[in-house]
Amino acid sequence: MTVKKLTGQDIAAVVSKKGMTPKNVTRTSLQILVKGNRLDAIPVLIKLFSKQNAIYDKNAKGSSIGAVIIDGVKVLIKADGKTGGLDVELAAIQDLQQALSGYAAVAPKAVTDTSICTQLKPTSMVG
């Protein structure tokens, strides 16, 4: 008994039922539009398609966050409502800010000893 491999159309039908919006669907690839943080959709897709050995490929071309590969079909996750250019850049910055929000920023100590500055003498240029 052979197991039917999923196509982009099959994946689009499943994610549509889960409230995601498929776009640019072909047999071997599709985009999924999501509201909110795109990174949050990665584990959802992997769990949803765990029987098809869904994996995350952070180096996949076509998106700054990579893609989820399901049965050989490349699934790119895009921010809903973003048309490209600055909208996409802003979404990427917001994703990064959210990802880093749990980490405390540590500012370097300011130089308080200025005595070294008074000891420096300019060198003359040799011409």
Provide a count of the helices.
4
Please report which band the strand proportion falls in: under 5%, 5-15%, 15-25%, 25-35%, 35-45% or over 45%. 15-25%
Helix content: 25-40%
| Approximate shape | globular
Extended strand count = 5
Q: For the CA atoms, what is the radius of gyration? A: 24 Å
The major β-sheet equals: 5 strands, mixed
| Oligomerization state | single chain
Distance between the termini: 85 Å
- The class by helix and strand makeup works out as alpha+beta
Low-confidence stretches: none
- In which order are the strands of the major sheet placed? 1-2-5-4-3
Q: Mean pLDDT, nearest integer?
A: 81
H/E topology pattern: HEEHEEEHH
Please give a handful of descriptors for the protein shown.
globular; 127 residues; five-stranded mixed β-sheet; 4 helices; alpha+beta; 5 strands; single chain
Topology (SSEs and partners):
Elements: H1 8-17, E1 21-23, E2 29-34, H2 41-48, E3 55-57, E4 67-70, E5 73-79, H3 86-100, H4 115-119
Parallel strand pairs: 2-5
Antiparallel strand pairs: 1-2, 3-4, 4-5
What does this protein look like?
It is a single chain. The chain has a 5-stranded mixed β-sheet with strand order 1-2-5-4-3, with helices on one face. It is built from 4 helices and 5 strands, in the order αββαβββαα. The model has no long low-confidence stretch (mean pLDDT 81). By secondary structure, the chain is an alpha+beta fold. A hairpin with a 2-residue loop joins strand 4 and strand 5 (73-79). The chain has a domain at 8-95.
